[in-house]
Amino acid sequence: MKKRILTGALLTACLMGLILYTYRHFEKGYAGKDFAETAWEAMDTNDTDKDMHGMVSGNTNEEYVDRLDVNNGIDDNIDNNDGKLNGNINNNTDDNTNSSTNNSTNDNISDDINNNTHDLSVIKIDLLGYQTNDIKKAYFDKGNVGDIFEVINVKSKETVFTGKIDSKKTGDFSQLTECGTYYIEASFIGRSEQFCIIEDKYASLSVELYQKSLAYANNNQSDFEKRVQILLWILRYVDVYTDDEPYSVFATEGNTDKKPEYLKDCEKAAGGLMNQAEKYASDEVVKSDDDYDLDTFAFYSCLMAMLYDKIQEYDATLANTYLNEAVRSYNLVEQRKAELIDESFLFYAAAGLYRYTGQSKYRIITEEYLKNNPERELFLTNASTKELRADEAYVHGLISYLRTTNPVDMDLCEKGMKHLMRTAEQFDESIQSENYDGIGDDCRSRILTDRLSIIAIVEHVIVSQEYNRILKNAIHGFGGCNKEGEIYLTDRGIIHESVDEARSDALNASAYFYLLGQITESDYKEKESIKSEALESEEQ
């Protein structure tokens, strides 16, 4: 393998991390072992660098509390919910007065990711709350540099933090780390709505988004494409944040031979999809001039292949049913590939089947695509929905190829990894130039979600606190730190009535469930690092 020079320290670090990522995940496979060992010899790295992708752990709330229904009963008084996330946001609050919370939801993360119904606020904060270690910022509609703002504890009515706004009309109160319920007040503008600071916000929110995603998949039987996407994101989460590692929301305890609950959930949803697929595969539905449905079958094929892989240790018969469905769907796409707007859909389906079956015919299709197609620019600002879908197929097809334990072309692996790293760096720069610390004036776009997924993929490898901050900023933006001061995150994803749904609701809440997996992993790794340093200091 030829050693190639990357542009910039970040890309070098990314390459080192991605090499290690390949090794750690595929050490039994041809791709992982040979590629990683050769690369470590070519690059002068130390043992500390080699541990960049050490396993992390961390658990979430054990209770899967049902918070899917909107609770309309709002108490006028606020009980003590220190250390917990808000209950429902009051739908009838004034701009300059704090909302009420329902103390019946104190043990949960807001009921809250619901319809965007609460009033706007002149001080934008994350209505879904902040984690104790977050960078915490409020965004003011008006004010001058140096104007004073205060953070006030709801229970005690005491001012617990005093700060000044900067030239961007932003107030940083990150030093406040004590769990509790608060609001912000400033004489020059008024009072914000209430928010909470809690210990494990992102773990709790992960559970809620999983529940909402699954509920949508089970309750919207006619929405074939979105249901496919929901299950794909759930399985991608498990693929990276495996259920045998404590940081996963699906972390298993005790008997690991028992079929995990998430697989039972996916089986149930997949059964309905398979029934629909029979109808959708007919010529009456998948027309020659309508590649949208045909594209969906490429994603559906990969979903079935992933289910085959996950279920075969528990139920070989059912696993083979999934595999047959994956092959049948792949054949449909392959036979009618001339109708596709982009070959990346066939590439994605082939890469998925090669990863899980190792059959050479799928490898040929996968590698021919990577060799014969120029490096594509991903998730461009003005891209159409179909173009975004094609980019998504390329990215996840590439990930399937990089993660297989079957033989691969090392040069293609290196080329693909570098492409992802360069793309993440480009998105990092463009996102940080936007308003609201990276989210921009409109954070509902599918394009932003796709770009964040690239950053999450690379961040998983190199454990970059900068990338983790960008992901957290996105969640804060979706929770209220945006131009309108609204919660954009719903059970259908990032959506708003003023934005075309096809562009804003593309990946459902399950895509953000995946992003939260990376945030919780990085946070736990940081905590473990701090603990390790403290122990070393004590020993010395």
Topology, element by element:
Elements: H1 9-26, H2 30-42, H3 47-50, E1 123-124, E2 130-131, E3 137-140, E4 148-153, E5 159-164, E6 170-172, E7 180-186, E8 190-191, E9 195-198, H4 201-219, H5 224-240, H6 261-280, H7 291-311, H8 316-335, H9 344-357, H10 360-372, H11 385-403, H12 410-432, H13 435-438, H14 446-462, H15 465-479, E10 489-490, E11 493-494, H16 501-504, H17 508-539
Parallel strand pairs: 2-9
Antiparallel strand pairs: 1-3, 3-6, 4-5, 4-7, 7-8, 7-9, 10-11
Question: What does it look like?
Answer:
The chain has 540 residues and is of the alpha+beta class. The chain has helices at residues 9-26, 30-42, 47-50, 201-219, 224-240, 261-280, 291-311, 316-335, 344-357, 360-372, 385-403, 410-432, 435-438, 446-462, 465-479, 501-504, 508-539, and strands at residues 123-124, 130-131, 137-140, 148-153, 159-164, 170-172, 180-186, 190-191, 195-198, 489-490, 493-494. The chain contains 17 helices and eleven strands. Helix 1 crosses helix 12 (410-432), helix 7 (291-311) packs parallel to helix 11 (385-403) and helix 9 runs parallel beside helix 11.
